[in-house]
Design brief:
This protein is mainly α and about 100 residues long. α1 crosses α2 and α1 packs antiparallel against α3. The protein starts with a helix and ends with a helix.
Length: about 100
């Protein structure tokens, strides 16, 4: 592909998707850990983050780690697209200015 705005858009779209896929399970586990109720004298529901992830997968299935994926991508995707397109355009403008 030619190094132009179409390539930058596609690359940033894929980067945003990959970031959402990689970070969503961590976000789900973090949220569950933070929201567990602790009553005086009783143990916590989850002992660690790994325990939380394992129990979630066992009880609800693997896809439970991707609850909230669409809202996460709708937040992360456009940010990546705007950031990387802007970055590449500014980089190209600076390179052409520096040549003069």
């Amino acid at each position: 592909m030619k190094d132009d705005i179409k390539l930058h858009f596609l690359s940033s779209f894929i980067a945003g998707f990959a970031g959402a896929v990689a970070s969503n399970p961590i976000d789900v586990v973090k949220t569950r850990m933070m929201n567990q109720k602790v009553v005086a004298g009783n143990d916590q529901l989850y002992k660690s983050s790994v325990d939380c992830a394992v129990r979630t997968v066992k009880s609800e299935g693997f896809m439970a780690l991707y609850k909230g994926f669409v809202p996460l991508y709708l937040r992360l995707g456009p940010w990546n697209i705007i950031f990387f397109i802007t970055y590449e355009q500014l980089k190209n403008a600076h390179a052409s200015y520096a040549e003069k």
